[in-house]
Write a structure and sequence with these properties.
With 368 residues, the protein is of the alpha/beta class. The chain is built from 11 helices and 10 strands. The longest helix is centred in the C-terminal third of the chain and has 15 residues.
């Protein structure tokens, strides 16, 4: 964003997202970036949702101008607790349900009346987007989950690394628990980016944002949100499932159960209110893991697929935060095939951002 807070550096004046603040009924002053191309009319809006240590800025740099150039009205929110949408003084964590309620309010109160957006969520933003879709409170044209936290959370990924790549596991702990993603260039690149993309100078710019936007933690003790919590769910008409994006997946996750040693390490580094936002802690007694058991069918897949919008699960084999078994788990849970993107975790910020945006656009075009 420029020093005046009105735009994003590096964009032409004709394609520059506008920064605004919406006063939501949830009590949040929510920052968002938007760009509406001329002649968009009633075209389906796209709502981009960021993950931990990020804000709406991560979409405004490349993806908002790209999709606006393709004719879509685009919006990217900065979630509660980021520098753009700050919490009240003294608040140290945000509940997952607060994020989903804010997103529902934004869709209902800020997007044009009658909008049925496509949600595009990255990392933990993918989990928030899943919860919005699962609730059935707002109509959606589609849900794209990019490098999204798996239905069982991210502890499986860390557990696998503890035994296969312990040094990498420790770097992930440093990045999230000790917030070194905003302080150490080597750790930030290893965990979030490809070895040679983008240049160090650019990552250092992002690190300053990671540090600022990662100050407030995520309390995931309320991850179980049941259908009964939301009245009158909306049933979506799913498109023809013959398209490759909707083929029933037979991917079998090769993720081994995390043994007690790994569980013990996970509990020791991630108490409930810590800022380790992309690693879920052990649930409190009575709480249910992601996803809650009553949201799973007998086949281990989501039991709300009959009312789900079109779904895209996408990721990259080079992702260190959400590894390939985690990606396969999400695809299996939603009965789709995973779409493979390029680069590492930061699919919208690396030099290959445009290739990834084009792949996601192809899917969006097919469902709206």
């Amino acid at each position: 964003m420029d020093p005046k807070g009105n735009g994003v550096r590096g964009l032409s004046a004709s394609a520059q997202p506008v920064r605004q603040v919406a006063e939501l009924k949830t009590g949040l002053s929510m920052e968002y970036f938007s760009l509406t191309p001329a002649g968009a009319g009633t075209k389906t809006p796209l709502l981009f949702i960021h993950g931990s240590f990020h804000g709406g800025w991560c979409w405004a740099e490349h993806w908002l101008p790209y999709f606006a150039d393709e004719g879509y009205p685009v919006y990217a929110v900065s979630l509660r607790g980021t520098t753009g949408s700050p919490q009240a003084e003294g608040v140290k964590s945000v509940k997952l349900q607060e994020h989903t309620e804010d997103l529902g309010a934004f869709i209902s109160e800020v997007l044009p009346p009658g909008s049925e957006p496509v949600l595009v969520g990255h990392s933990f933003g993918g989990m928030y987007a899943q919860k919005v879709a699962e609730s059935g409170k707002v109509p959606l044209k589609g849900l794209a989950m990019l490098c999204s936290v798996a239905p069982s959370g991210n502890s499986g990924t860390v557990g696998r690394y503890i035994f296969s790549q312990p040094f990498l596991a420790w770097k992930i702990v440093l990045a999230f628990v000790f917030k070194k993603a905003g302080e150490d260039l080597g750790i930030c690149r290893t965990v979030f980016f490809s070895p040679d993309s983008p240049p160090d100078s650019k990552i250092e710019e992002y690190m300053a944002r990671f540090k600022a936007d990662g100050a407030i933690g995520l309390d995931v003790s309320d991850v179980s949100i049941t259908p009964s919590s939301f009245p009158r769910p909306i049933k979506h008409d799913r498109p023809n499932t013959s398209t490759a994006y909707y083929k029933s997946s037979r991917l079998e996750s090769k993720s081994p159960p995390v043994n007690m040693k790994a569980q013990t390490l996970r509990r020791s580094i991630s108490p409930r209110n810590m800022s380790f936002q992309d690693l879920d802690p052990k649930p409190l007694p009575g709480a249910e893991a992601i996803p809650s058991q009553n949201l799973m069918g007998a086949d281990g897949c989501a039991d709300w697929l009959d009312r789900a919008p079109p779904l895209l699960v996408a990721g990259t084999p080079q992702d260190k935060v959400v590894d390939l078994p985690a990606l396969q788990e999400t695809a299996k849970f939603y009965k789709v095939e995973a779409l493979m993107l390029n680069g590492a975790h930061e699919v919208m910020l690396e030099d290959c951002w445009k290739e990834n945006a084009e792949a996601v656009k192809t899917w969006i075009d097919s469902v709206v």
